[in-house]
């Protein structure tokens, strides 16, 4: 194999191991053994397990964000965009379950980017701008858009994690239920929400 071919082979090997076992449980020895190379070859290409993991996570993030960004560029109207973005995440989970499992696992210690939380933060910041515009049109406070964006993205992501393991519903059904809850919830928002009861302290 050429150097680039060997690198790609090790990425595929590492990707499968990280998806199945997680970062902590995967060793350089296993990566080398599954790739039919010596440990120094892994270090030569990636500097170690952390370097290989970072390359894999970066690719997964780009794939996920690319699909969601493309979905947000299509269609008009808040509901259509919500449907497209929801389906984009579910499409990624369906077509790339190993990649999604890698993203939702804990990141290596000290790694502040490349976690699933940071990916969701990126997506939420894009959704926030769409919501702020829609809120203005409906006479709602656009300053509340960030919290609603976090709630929407979190709802879709957590449901996606559940769906990955359960698969009790078809993808379109999951998307329809998510959009139904989100859209009908958004359409009935109070201008100044308040709790109707407070727990005793």
Automatic annotation (TrEMBL):
It holds the Pfam family TetR_N. GO terms for molecular function: DNA-binding transcription factor activity; transcription cis-regulatory region binding. Residues 27-46 bind DNA. Residues 4-64 form the HTH tetR-type domain. This is TetR family transcriptional regulator. Keywords: DNA-binding. The keyword Isomerase does not apply.
């Amino acid at each position: 194999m050429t150097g680039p071919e060997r690198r790609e082979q090790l990425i595929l090997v590492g990707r499968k191991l990280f998806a199945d076992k997680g970062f902590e449980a995967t060793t350089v020895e296993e990566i080398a053994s599954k790739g039919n190379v010596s440990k120094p070859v892994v270090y030569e290409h990636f500097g170690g397990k952390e370097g290989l993991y970072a390359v894999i996570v970066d690719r997964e993030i780009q794939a996920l964000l690319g699909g969601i960004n493309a979905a947000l560029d299509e269609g008009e109207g808040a509901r259509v965009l919500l449907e497209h973005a929801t389906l984009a995440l579910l499409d990624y989970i369906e077509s790339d379950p190993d990649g999604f499992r890698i993203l939702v696992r804990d990141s290596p210690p000290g790694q502040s980017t490349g976690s699933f939380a940071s990916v969701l933060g990126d997506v939420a910041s894009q959704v926030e701008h769409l919501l702020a515009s829609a809120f203005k049109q409906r006479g709602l406070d656009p300053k509340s858009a960030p919290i609603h964006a976090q709630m929407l993205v979190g709802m879709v992501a957590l449901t996606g994690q559940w769906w990955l393991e359960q698969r009790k519903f078809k993808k379109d059904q999951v998307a329809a239920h998510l959009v139904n809850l989100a859209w009908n919830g958004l359409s009935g928002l109070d201008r100044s929400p308040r709790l109707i009861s407070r727990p005793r302290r």
